[in-house]
């Protein structure tokens, strides 16, 4: 198991995003802009939850992102 | 003699070599085409007619002297997010109207060193993401239907190549921005393997998804241009150190006996029936080249596309954070993307990056012994500029997620993708996409050239060339 929770993050909402923006010191996002951002994240949410649920072990087969570049440089380990 | 503006770069080079016409003739033909089509298309941001004519004279002299280089005398355009020394490079934004770089991007330098002639800096969505309504420069119109978008973000490159303003243009592609306008404008465009073309001098959007590549009117011209711009540059650490193949020489190798994998499902959803019918016929015609098409399944595509968006949001926010305080002054689509950035968690971003090798392996397993995937370049007609919705046959929906769905998975995975025109539906271009193994861009170009040798779709002229009478 990855250890990452598949649930437990809050549903996107304007209130939540306003708090996250404030936490980062972002003051330029209007309520309308926050609502659009919420909609963007809500559209992605089912797939994002699926991504969060994917097992990603500490070592093989997905230890770290740089594997992607080395795989490309090897030509994709083509048979 | 044909109007030189209608010829491909390969055909122009043949004519220069034979002494049938000169680079000066070619540049003048392109300038004449720009003069009659630009008022309707709005594809050009900066026209470099004076310097181009001077360069054309020099190229003509090189042809006379026998010292011509690989692209000697070929006019080309650059998407205006690409830096050009002493020439304004606006990013399609009012913020950079006065930005005149001191140094050219690596592609601009390489094209010039190969003898190419920069004729125009071309329209783009603001910072390659702003959307079709560009506040600074206006909308770019599709030569096939002026009421429709070219797609983007390489909007000017798509329109300019389709209309014969230039035979070659450079585009960039983070989620389809070469391949979508290629599909919508009926031209040939390749997003090379990630790392194949360095990105020094390009305004970035997402460093793990951004690619640079050719937009042309034939696969042979893509091969010609890719050969000129590919290869490691130390100023982009992610650029590949692999040797650059002879893409043009490789076009002559046979394609009979190759297999292509057809992933249906996600990639053939949202498919307007009229476009699906033309696509089906095109896939069928691959058999006459001796290419076998086999159905395959690719798992987790929706999840991987979403992971691509997570990466895009996070990296765009990191790169463009300085524009957040003026977000409401930015173009609509880009503001929407930028506004989503602050709410990607570090864990989700890293998880999306860590999932990338797993998705790559899924793609490799699906490919098996096939040379590549075949899938639609676009599943609908380009949207009308007013509304930006696409007709999937059973619904009108916002264009962006439909237009990008067959592209962003391959930005995320880094595989090369080549879009080829394969017919018309309701008078608008239909496109076939070939996606290949990493660093086997050459096979895609070879299949594309073989397909274009038995079809004429890449030679179809948009209606604007009839109505403007060049």
Can you offer a commentary on this structure?
The complex is a heterodimer of chains A (79) and B (470). By secondary structure, chain A is mostly helical. Chain A has one domain. Chain A has 3 helices and no strands. Mean pLDDT of chain A is 87; it is low at 1-8. Chain B is globular and about 60 Å long. With 470 residues, chain B is α/β, with parallel strands linked by helices. Chain B has a single domain (4-467), classed as Amidase signature (AS) enzymes. In chain B, helix 7 runs antiparallel to helix 15 (441-454). Chain B contains 16 helices and 15 strands. An 11-stranded mixed beta sheet of chain B has the order 1-3-2-6-8-7-14-15-11-9-10, sandwiched between helices. In chain B, strands 4-5 form a two-stranded antiparallel sheet. The interface between A and B is large, with 43 and 54 residues.
Features:
heterodimer; A: 79 residues; 3 helices; 0% strand; elongated; disordered N terminus; B: 470 residues; Amidase signature (AS) enzymes; 11-stranded mixed β-sheet; two-stranded antiparallel sheet; 16 helices; 38% helix
Mean pLDDT of chain A: 87
The radius of gyration over CA of chain A amounts to 18 Å
- Rg of chain B from C-alpha positions? 20 Å
> Ranges of chain A with pLDDT <50 over ≥5 residues?
1-8
CATH class value of chain B: Alpha Beta
| Total of helices of chain B | 16
- Biggest sheet: strand arrangement of chain B: 1-3-2-6-8-7-14-15-11-9-10
Report on the biggest sheet of chain A.
none
Q: Which topology of chain B does CATH recognise?
A: Amidase signature (AS) enzymes
Concise description?
By secondary structure, chain A is mainly alpha-helical. Chain A has one domain. Chain A has helices at 14-23, 31-53, 67-73.
């Amino acid at each position: 198991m990855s250890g990452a929770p598949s649930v437990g993050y809050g549903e996107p909402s304007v209130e939540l995003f306003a708090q996250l923006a404030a936490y980062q010191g972002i003051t330029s996002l209007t309520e309308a802009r926050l609502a659009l951002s919420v909609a963007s994240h809500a559209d992605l949410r089912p797939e994002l939850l699926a991504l969060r649920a994917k097992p990603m072990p500490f070592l093989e087969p997905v230890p770290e992102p740089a594997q992607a570049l080395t795989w490309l440089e090897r030509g994709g380990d083509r048979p | 003699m044909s109007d030189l503006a209608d010829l491909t770069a390969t055909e122009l080079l043949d004519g220069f070599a034979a002494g049938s016409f000169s680079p000066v003739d070619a540049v003048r033909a392109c300038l004449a085409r720009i003069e009659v089509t630009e008022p309707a298309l709005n594809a050009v941001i900066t026209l470099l007619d004076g310097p181009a004519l001077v360069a054309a004279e020099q190229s003509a002299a090189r042809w006379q002297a026998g010292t011509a280089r690989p692209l000697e005398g070929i006019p080309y355009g650059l998407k205006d997010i690409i830096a050009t020394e002493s020439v304004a490079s606006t990013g399609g934004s009012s913020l950079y109207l006065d930005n005149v770089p001191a140094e050219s991007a690596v592609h601009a330098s390489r094209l010039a060193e190969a003898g190419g002639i920069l004729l125009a800096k071309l329209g783009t969505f603001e910072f390659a993401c702003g959307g079709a309504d560009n506040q600074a420069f206006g909308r770019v119109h599709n030569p096939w239907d002026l009421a429709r978008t070219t797609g983007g973000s390489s909007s000017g490159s798509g329109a300019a190549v389709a209309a014969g303003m230039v035979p070659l243009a450079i585009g960039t592609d983070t989620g389809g921005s070469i391949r979508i306008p290629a599909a919508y404008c009926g031209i040939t465009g390749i997003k090379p393997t990630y790392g194949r073309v360095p990105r020094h001098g390009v305004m970035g959007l997402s460093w793990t998804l951004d690619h640079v590549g050719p937009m042309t009117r034939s696969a042979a011209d893509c091969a010609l241009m890719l050969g000129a711009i590919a290869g490691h540059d130390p100023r982009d650490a992610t650029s590949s150190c692999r040797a650059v193949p002879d893409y043009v020489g490789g076009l002559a190798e046979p394609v009979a006996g190759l297999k292509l994998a057809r992933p249906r499902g996600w990639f053939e959803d949202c498919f307007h029936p009229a476009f699906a019918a033309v696509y089906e016929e095109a896939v069928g015609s691959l058999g006459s080249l001796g290419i076998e098409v086999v159905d395959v399944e690719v798992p987790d595509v929706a999840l991987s596309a979403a992971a691509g968006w997570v990466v895009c949001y996070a990296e765009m926010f990191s790169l463009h954070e300085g524009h957040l305080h003026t977000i409401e002054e930015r173009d609509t689509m880009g503001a929407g993307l930028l506004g989503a950035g602050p709410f990607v968690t570090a864990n989700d971003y890293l998880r999306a990056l860590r999932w990338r090798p797993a998705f790559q392996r899924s793609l490799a397993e699906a490919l098996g012994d096939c040379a590549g995937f075949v899938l639609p370049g676009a599943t609908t007609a380009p949207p009308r500029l007013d509304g930006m919705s696409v007709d999937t046959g059973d619904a009108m929906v916002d264009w962006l997620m439909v237009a990008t769905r067959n592209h962003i998975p391959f930005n995320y995975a880094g595989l090369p993708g080549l879009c080829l025109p394969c017919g018309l539906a309701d008078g608008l271009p239909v496109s076939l996409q070939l996606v290949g193994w990493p660093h086997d861009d050459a096979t895609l170009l070879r299949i594309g050239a073989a397909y274009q040798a038995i079809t004429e779709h890449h030679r179809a002229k948009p209606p604007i060339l009839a109505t403007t009478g060049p």
